[in-house]
């Protein structure tokens, strides 16, 4: 085996910047020895204080890990946000919010105190968490814990188990939580079976996780409830957004204000030594180190969060997204028409009315500010008849953005402007979000491919201005642009070596890689030319040539399919070469015409590049 060069070896050993950052955090903060391991639950005191693991999960499902990231420990209070979200979805917001507040308490996590309405301050303190578990217990009875365990497992993307020793230890020493439970019962927040509720709560806190697990769980919160590793929608976006809100104000207990001021990422800690942090629409972070500070938070875990936020400027209130970046291209069909090869009459109509079809290609997130900017940009130019919004680079659509889209489309409908959407599949979440607000609108059409959308709008312009598109029209060789300038005798001789071929709709006429041994002149119908990956290069109608690259190449470089029943003149390449030798003037004319056709295609391609690079 040939040894790698020094540069190649260095390349194989290189790490992504985020992984290097986590490595640096691990190395630097391992030296931090302050704090103490929780001992009020005896089993927790057995944790090795030297253990330290960090994991970060991105919203595309990649997970970085360093240190003891696969070492199991109990989830403890980090279960609270997930159980709160589960309760919201299972029981409804009204039921949960009538029993549990959402205000910070300013007290330690295990305070035996309720708010002025004799309800828990929020679901992140023990009183609120026990109340949440109690609500689920009232609804599910003996199945309550299994419902919670399965939900936690779906957030983690794997089946989670219980540490029975920690569960027993918590149960034996949980008198303070029992006092909270009976206080809740006295105030009718939970039902009579306090022991049953607390048994579920102790088990829920004893579920085993790893730093990797809680990073994925945090990323699921950051991803509006969709697990980025499994792709599963675990809970509703409503429940997730309300959970993140409470995590922001109360997730770190009596350190919550300082936390959100300095770090600015919704987070939750557990006395087992874990901290999870969920930065909405960005990432999830999980860390494990069992030594805690006076607030019950992991000392090293806090340092990791502080470093991540400061180093990458991730404070959630310090966002700098610019709505103007949502538009990657804005043009009309005069600058970038469809790939349909048009006949002269059609070209004339489209050239006279090119501004009647406007195309706006969008990128990123369709947020309220992005849609507002696009609507103002659209209104700044004369009203078109058709507006095509291409969404294939759009990564997500907020509900606020979708609602503003619908309101903008309603205004366009009142002005007799037809909206065409492209680049979004009907089976996608983006389509569902858009259709929730636009389903009743009558002026909205959709095509998956942008070129198909442009072609359809062009057809409508041709029809509206007196043109016609007759796919059944039959054309002769004299009408072929590639044969323009040939004399009558030359066309007659060429016709003598042609064979008329007939193709049914959907038939594959040419295949990439096959020998290029003939060229074709489309006599009637329509065909389309595609690359092997399905990208359409052109749509051709009667009077156009295809397979003409056989004059320059020995093998086919694209596939050709019949869009409908079609006929074509086929000319074998060998016979055509003999024709060229017999008619040198015609041969020169054909090659000049071919050069012009290729130049026209290049001009169109360059125009598209210019559009994308100048916006």
UniProtKB/TrEMBL annotation:
Its EC top class is hydrolase
* UniProtKB keywords: Acetylation, Hydrolase
Name the EC number(s).
Answer: 3.5.1.2
Q: Name one GO molecular function term.
A: glutaminase activity
Matches recorded under SMART domains: cNMP
PROSITE patterns named in the record: CNMP_BINDING_3, STAS
| A Pfam family hit | cNMP_binding
InterPro entries according to UniProt: Beta-lactam/transpept-like (IPR012338), cNMP-bd_dom (IPR000595), cNMP-bd_dom_sf (IPR018490), Glutaminase (IPR015868), RmlC-like_jellyroll (IPR014710), STAS_dom (IPR002645), STAS_dom_sf (IPR036513)
- Residues the entry annotates as binding substrate: 77, 126, 170, 177, 201, 253, 271
* Residues covered by the Cyclic nucleotide-binding domain: 482-597
Q: What range(s) does the STAS domain occupy? A: 347-425
Q: Which residues form the signal peptide?
A: none
* Catalytic function, reaction form: L-glutamine + H2O = L-glutamate + NH4(+)
Q: What's this protein's family per the entry? A: Belongs to the glutaminase family.
Quaternary structure (record)? Homotetramer.
**This protein's name:** Glutaminase
Species for this entry: Bradyrhizobium symbiodeficiens
């Amino acid at each position: 085996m040939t040894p790698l060069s020094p540069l190649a070896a260095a390349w194989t050993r290189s790490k992504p910047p985020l992984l290097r950052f986590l490595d640096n955090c691990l190395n630097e903060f391992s030296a931090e020895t302050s704090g103490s391991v929780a001992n009020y639950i005896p089993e927790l005191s057995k944790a090795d204080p030297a253990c330290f693991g960090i994991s970060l999960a991105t919203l595309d499902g990649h997970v970085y890990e360093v240190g003891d990231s696969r070492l199991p420990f109990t989830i403890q209070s980090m279960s609270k946000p997930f159980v709160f979200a589960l309760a919201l979805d299972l029981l409804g917001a009204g039921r949960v919010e009538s029993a549990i507040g959402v205000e910070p308490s300013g007290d330690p996590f295990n305070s035996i105190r309720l708010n002025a309405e004799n309800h828990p301050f929020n679901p992140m303190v023990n009183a609120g968490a026990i109340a949440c578990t109690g609500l689920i217990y009232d609804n599910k009875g003996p199945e309550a814990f299994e419902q919670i365990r399965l939900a936690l497992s779906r957030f983690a993307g794997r089946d989670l188990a219980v540490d029975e020793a920690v569960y027993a230890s918590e149960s034996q020493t949980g008198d303070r939580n029992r006092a909270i439970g009976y206080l809740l019962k006295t105030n009718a927040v939970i039902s009579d079976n306090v022991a049953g509720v607390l048994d579920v709560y102790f088990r829920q806190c004893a579920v085993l996780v790893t730093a990797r697990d809680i990073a994925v769980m945090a990323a699921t919160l950051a991803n509006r409830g969709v697990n980025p590793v499994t792709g599963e929608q675990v809970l509703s976006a409503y429940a997730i957004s309300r959970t993140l809100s409470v995590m922001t104000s109360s997730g770190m207990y009596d350190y919550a204000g300082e936390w959100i001021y300095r770090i600015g990422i919704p987070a939750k800690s557990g006395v087992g030594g874990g901290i999870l942090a969920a930065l909405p629409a960005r990432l999830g972070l999980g860390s494990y180190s069992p030594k805690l500070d006076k607030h019950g938070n992991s000392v090293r875990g806090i340092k990791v969060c502080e470093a991540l936020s400061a180093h990458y400027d991730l404070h959630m209130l310090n966002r700098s997204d610019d709505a103007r970046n949502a538009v990657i291209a804005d043009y009309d069909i005069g600058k970038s028409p469809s790939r349909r090869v048009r006949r002269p009459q059609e070209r004339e109509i489209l050239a006279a009315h090119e501004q009647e079809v406007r195309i706006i290609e969008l990128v990123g997130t369709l947020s309220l500010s992005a849609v507002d900017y696009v609507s103002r940009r659209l209104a700044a130019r004369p009203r078109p008849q058709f507006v095509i919004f291409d969404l294939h680079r759009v990564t997500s659509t907020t509900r606020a953005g979708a609602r503003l889209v619908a309101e903008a489309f309603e205004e366009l409908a009142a002005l007799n402007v037809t909206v065409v959407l492209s680049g979004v599949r009907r089976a996608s979440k983006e389509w569902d979000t858009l259709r929730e607000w636009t389903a009743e609108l009558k002026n909205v059409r959709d095509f998956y491919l942008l070129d198909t959308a442009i072609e359809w709008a062009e057809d409508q312009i041709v029809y509206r201005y007196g043109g016609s598109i007759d796919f059944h029209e039959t054309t002769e060789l004299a009408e072929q642009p590639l044969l323009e300038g040939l004399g009558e005798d030359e066309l007659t001789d060429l016709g003598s070596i042609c064979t008329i071929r007939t193709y049914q709709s959907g038939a594959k006429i040419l295949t990439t890689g096959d020998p290029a041994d003939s060229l074709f002149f489309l006599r009637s119908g329509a065909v389309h030319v595609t690359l092997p990956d399905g990208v359409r290069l052109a749509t051709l109608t009667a009077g156009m040539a295809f397979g003409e690259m056989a004059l320059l190449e020995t093998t086919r470089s694209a596939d050709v399919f019949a869009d409908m029943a079609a006929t074509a003149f086929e000319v074998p390449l060998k016979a055509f070469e003999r024709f060229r030798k017999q008619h040198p003037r015609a041969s020169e004319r054909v090659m000049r015409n071919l050069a012009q056709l290729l130049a026209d295609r290049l001009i169109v391609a360059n125009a598209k590049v210019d559009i994308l690079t100048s916006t």
